[in-house]
Design the sequence.
């Protein structure tokens, strides 16, 4: 049997088709418009388009006319202790209104404090107080956009001592309370599992898989910390690793096909190379399910 729709999926936070998409890079835009590759959707980072015009909008308007679109934010600081940046949220709302994407997503992380912006996705302590704050922030975003968003699980490199909730439980509660969906990044799952010695499959099984509106597949860098332990970095600058492909196969066996993004933000290869990974994901997405 070949699945044609995800089993039990609640797609309220995403209208993306259950196929394979790519992150849109400006250097590939002419090729995309000329060749019209058979991809399910494209994704862009919201912060790259928070201006009125320019070459990015020139291309995105044309590509959006032909493909479904996912808008992925990296700077909203949902997990931060401070109030959301109203100007940033207003810029996001204008962008969403302009392009009417099939999905909007943000990270479970914080990016700034005290007027200082950190160009990184920083971890938060998983406590009842931070859960309430995250849900409040998601609610404000959803009220402003007048639509549910997807919340992405993080890649982490340390565990905060103040945490009293497991990450999967925290995400479950955040999704349930706020009504948002889940962007499940399988590379983040694997990176965190290796860094903390966790079971990646158990973590995935503990998530609200029926609320997954999009998947991310990406590559990582491998380093070694001062104690000689292996450390993985969520770099988005390498091909998808075999353990992440294995997680993808196992997940699809549980859920059926889901919208899947091949994420590459650094060391960006030729478009044809990205298409090879997209075709591999598509083959797994459409393979007959095991009985």
Sequence:
């Amino acid at each position: 049997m070949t699945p044609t729709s995800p089993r039990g999926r609640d797609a309220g936070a995403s209208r993306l088709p259950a196929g394979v998409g790519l992150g849109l890079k400006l250097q590939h835009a002419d090729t995309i418009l000329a060749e019209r590759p058979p991809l399910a959707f494209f994704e862009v980072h919201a912060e790259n388009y928070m201006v009125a015009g320019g070459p990015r909008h020139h291309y995105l308007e044309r590509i959006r006319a032909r493909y479904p679109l996912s808008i992925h934010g990296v700077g909203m600081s949902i997990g931060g202790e401070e109030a959301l940046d109203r100007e940033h949220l207003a810029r996001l709302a204008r962008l969403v209104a302009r392009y009417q994407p099939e999905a909007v997503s943000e990270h479970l992380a914080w990016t700034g404090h005290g007027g200082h912006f950190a160009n990184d996705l920083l971890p938060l302590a998983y406590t009842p107080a931070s859960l309430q704050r995250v849900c409040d922030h998601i609610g404000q975003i959803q009220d402003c956009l007048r639509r549910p968003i997807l919340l992405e699980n993080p890649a982490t490199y340390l565990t905060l001592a103040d945490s009293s909730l497991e990450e999967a439980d925290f995400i479950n509660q955040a999704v349930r309370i706020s009504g948002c969906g889940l962007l499940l990044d399988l590379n983040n799952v694997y990176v965190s599992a290796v860094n903390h010695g966790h079971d990646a499959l158990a973590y995935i099984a503990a998530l609200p898989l029926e609320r997954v509106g999009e998947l991310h597949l990406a590559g990582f860098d491998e380093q070694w910390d001062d104690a000689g332990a292996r450390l993985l970095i969520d770099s988005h600058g390498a091909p998808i690793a075999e353990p992440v492909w294995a997680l993808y196969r196992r997940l699809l066996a549980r859920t059926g096909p889901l919208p899947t993004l091949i994420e590459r933000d650094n060391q960006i290869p030729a478009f044809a190379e990205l298409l090879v990974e997209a075709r591999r994901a598509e083959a797994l997405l459409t393979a007959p399910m095991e009985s």
Q: What stands out?
A: DSSP finds nine helices and twelve strands in the chain. The mean pLDDT is 91. The first strand starts at residue 20 and ends at 23. The two ends are 8 Å apart (CA to CA).
